[in-house]
Each structure stands twice: as C-alpha cells, then as structure tokens.
UniProtKB/TrEMBL annotation:
Protein name: RND multidrug efflux transporter
Species in which this protein is naturally found: Vibrio ishigakensis
GO molecular function term, any single one: xenobiotic transmembrane transporter activity
Gene3D superfamilies: Multidrug efflux transporter AcrB pore domain, Multidrug efflux transporter AcrB TolC docking domain, DN and DC subdomains, Multidrug efflux transporter AcrB transmembrane domain
PANTHER family found in the cross-reference section: HAE1 FAMILY EFFLUX PUMP PERMEASE COMPONENT, PTHR32063
GO terms under cellular component: plasma membrane
Transmembrane domains' residue ranges: 122-141
UniProt keyword annotations, A-Z: Membrane, Transmembrane, Transmembrane helix
Length: 149
C-alpha cells in the first residue's frame, strides 16, 4: 500500500544498491491505518496525514470500457424461470427511466437487440397481412366498400 523513497545507496563488492525508506507493509493494510502516518510541517512540527487530507474509499472499475466514444458498462443477466424476454426488457426500460439521468443512454445487444428490432417488425408484418387479406376479399367480392362478412 505504501511506496518508498530512495534515500541513499549501498555499495557491496562493486555493486551499488538503492536503499529505500518506507513504512512496514503490515502496518498499513487499510485506510484507517493511514492516520498513523506523520508529516513534518514547514515549522518542523509533526502532524498526522488525516489532519490535512480526507480519504474516501470508492469502488472503481478495473477496466473502463467505451462504446461510440462514450464511457460504457456492460450488464449481463439470465432470465429467471417463467420470465419472458419482453417483460424483462420492459422492466429494464422502466427502471432506466426512473433511476438514470437523462444524459445516459441505454443500448441493447445480442438477443435483446434482436428482440427489440423484431418486435416493431412483427407489428408491420401483421398490418401488411391484414391489408393483403382485405385486398384479396375486396377483389373476390369486387367491392372495396360493400361488406362481405
């Protein structure tokens, strides 16, 4: 957790070794232990590190991903038994609207992306099928406005 500072060199049989000054590694295992570090002021007084610095422990990503030149995260999940992909995507969309700021966008990939793209296509295909059925019936009964049912 602590680095060291090269203070001097040690020469043994013609080999030169750097001598580093640093604290005992076992003494500083967590953030609370940092309050034991003393700093010397300009006046020569000793003060603790926590009197001049505030240290917060935060979670951080090991790797920062980007998508379309924007920072991104990837969330992977499996559906619980009995859940449908449509219901899960609707739930995620609702939570994204509720919890995320407006400048954050959500993009889907894989099966989720295919489902969203095909969902709108299915509505168009269904509408076209109704139109074709209407045209076939109109041609068969030779009328677009008279009822045939």
């Amino acid at each position: 957790m602590l680095g060291g500072k090269s203070e001097t060199t040690y020469v043994d049989r013609g080999q030169e070794y750097d001598v580093y000054l640093r604290g005992d590694e076992n003494s500083f295992n967590n953030i609370a232990d940092l309050s034991q570090i003393y700093l010397r002021t300009i006046n020569g007084d000793l003060i603790t590190l926590d009197s001049v610095a505030h240290i917060d422990e935060v979670a951080s990503a090991i790797r920062l991903s980007h998508y379309n030149k924007q920072k991104s995260i990837t969330v992977k999940a499996n559906l619980v038994e009995g859940a449908t992909l449509g219901d899960a995507l609707d739930f995620l969309d609702q939570k994204a609207i509720e919890l995320l700021p407006s400048d954050i966008s959500v993009n889907y990939s894989g099966e989720s992306k295919d489902f969203k793209e095909n969902q709108s296509s299915i509505a168009i295909v269904f509408a076209l099928a109704l139109l074709v059925a209407y045209l076939v019936l109109a041609a068969q009964f030779e009328s677009f406005i008279n009822r045939w049912w």
